[in-house]
Amino acid sequence: MKFWVGVTDNSWFNHLIDNELSEANFWHPSTKVPFSNAPIGMPILFKLKAPNNHIAGGGFFVTYTRLPISMAWDFFGDKNGFDSLEEMAARLGGNNPNKEIGCTIVSETFFFPRQYWISDIPHWAPNLVRGRIYDTDADPESRQLWEEVHARIGDRSRRLSEAVSSQQVLPGGYGVGQIVTPRLGQGSFRALITEAYHRRCAITGESTLVALEAAHIKPFSVEQRHEVTNGLLLRADFHRLFDAGLVTVTPDYRVRVSENIHQLWFNGKAYYKLNNQRLASLPDNSLLAPNRDHLAWHLENRFQG
């Protein structure tokens, strides 16, 4: 099993604890990917900077993405570890909220009481500024370090062990969880949908990131879980039309546009051009594609056909 130990900003860590946040954006000023081919659910451990230099908690990997600071704030708010967008932009972008940063999204965070912080970190070099991967299958010291972490998780131990034996997958089929199936928050859902659709509107193919939004097919009030397969990446106007039932997507991935747009507002030419067209963008991984039953539900229960 692999896990990552990441160098953690001390104020970011304290903000998570003080606000009891279970989801977080482990941001990086650089957009360089900190690790590759990480499975959903890979443990990420938080190693504090000097003067502490201890592993003090962690969480489980959801996804990595790049976002302008303003959108990272829109997605995650104070889960970025700041009290305001202005504070975040001043710290990371020189007061430029459009600067792009790297975002490693972490869920199911956990924190150790100070007396249980781990100081003896094997293979750790003082010049590491981001972190390093450990592999329990290849290195006994890595295995021992993970056993120390696992012992501190406490009540989670049984559920973690069950996750390993059953090889759970993330809700919506997003890959095999290495340790645990992370519960998705709204921010994680938006980040996963954005990446799954390659930052392109499912209906129009629009790629202006700031104009794109993650839409639920079944509203969260009906399906109270954030699942990748219950989402579409849509241009903002199509998101509103979809939620209002004036646009839908059929189970065979074709766009339907309601006649009510014209009847009520004597408009909609730009929308009717897309009627009965196939979706312009879908995830490459078929396991991430929109759930056909959910689409049928929207067609039958929301669409004003």
Mean pLDDT: 89
Supply the CATH class of the largest domain. Mainly Beta
Number of strands: 10
Q: Distance between termini?
A: 51 Å
Shape: elongated
Gyration radius, rounded? 21 Å
Biggest sheet statistics: 6 strands, mixed
Residue share in helices?
25-40%
> Helix/strand-derived class?
alpha+beta
Taken in chain order, the helices and strands follow as EHEEEHHEEHHHEEHEEHHH
Description of the molecule:
The chain has helices at 10-18, 69-76, 85-93, 140-153, 156-166, 186-196, 236-244, 260-265, 269-272, 292-301, and strands spanning 2-8, 23-28, 43-48, 55-68, 100-111, 131-135, 212-216, 231-235, 247-249, 255-257. It is 30% helix and 22% strand. 39% of the residues are buried. Strands 2-5-4-3-1-6 form a six-stranded mixed sheet. Strands 7-8 form a two-stranded antiparallel ribbon. It has a two-stranded antiparallel sheet with strand order 9-10. It is an alpha+beta fold and 305 residues long. The longest helix is centred in the middle third of the chain and has 14 residues, at 140-153. The chain is built from ten helices and ten strands. Strand 9 (247-249) and strand 10 form a beta hairpin. The termini are far apart. The chain has two domains: 2-166, Roll (Archaeosine Trna-guanine Transglycosylase, Chain: A, domain 4); 197-301, no CATH class. Residues 157-180 have low confidence and may be disordered.
